[in-house]
Amino acid sequence: MFSVIIQAGGKSSRMGTDKLFIPFRGRILIEWVIERLANLTNDLIIISNQPEKLKFLNQAVYPDAIKDVGPLAGLYTGLKYARYDSAVMVACDMPFVNSSLLIKEVRLLNEMEVDVVIPAPCGKTEPLHAAYRRRTCLPVIEAGIRSGMQRLIEWHPFVRVHLMDDIEIYNSDPAGLAFMNINTPEDALLAEHIDLKDDNYEQPS
């Protein structure tokens, strides 16, 4: 079993409104993402600095445990409160997060005895659709934050990291949708009309 962490921070500046609450396929976006992930774990965690706004979700919501240090604080907080040693973290604005890929990441994390498994499609790392080992990553991230780090991959030189290449990713995400972000109203409109039959993931009912 592994924990699932949803990073629900960000300013939504390009959206013009809080992207968590935009309508998406009959739900609001954060509900859609939760439904795609809820069957993976009994330990789903949401990281948000506005927890009062998310009480209606009936999920565990935590604000950043270390304030004003950028996106790395969300990962630190998620791992701090995760129940299991293996954890995956995804972004709330990825409507097509892929359970098959996340499961594969956790499997590789354990089989390869590494600390991080992170997809790198076309060489671009995706730390918000990745797997982490809590006991080894948490102290390194904390030390990195204390030394001024803020970026999600800045601490990777100090742990064992496996980068998933395009072939490894394709086997679980043949449609190439897993890392699609919704940042603008145009992104949301495009995602609304994507046919999910090749998504390699059962659509929430």
Approximate shape: globular
CATH class: Alpha Beta
Question: Strand order of the main beta sheet, please?
Answer: 5-4-1-6-8-7-9
Topology as H/E string? EEEHEEHEHEEHEHH
Q: Please, could you describe this protein's structure?
A:
The protein has 205 residues and is α/β, with parallel strands linked by helices. It has one domain: Spore Coat Polysaccharide Biosynthesis Protein SpsA, Chain A. The chain contains six helices and nine strands. Strands 5-4-1-6-8-7-9 form a seven-stranded mixed β-sheet, sandwiched between helices. A two-stranded antiparallel sheet has the order 2-3. A hairpin with a 2-residue loop joins strand 2 (23-24) and strand 3. Helix 2 packs antiparallel against helix 4 (134-146). The radius of gyration is 16 Å and the shape is globular.
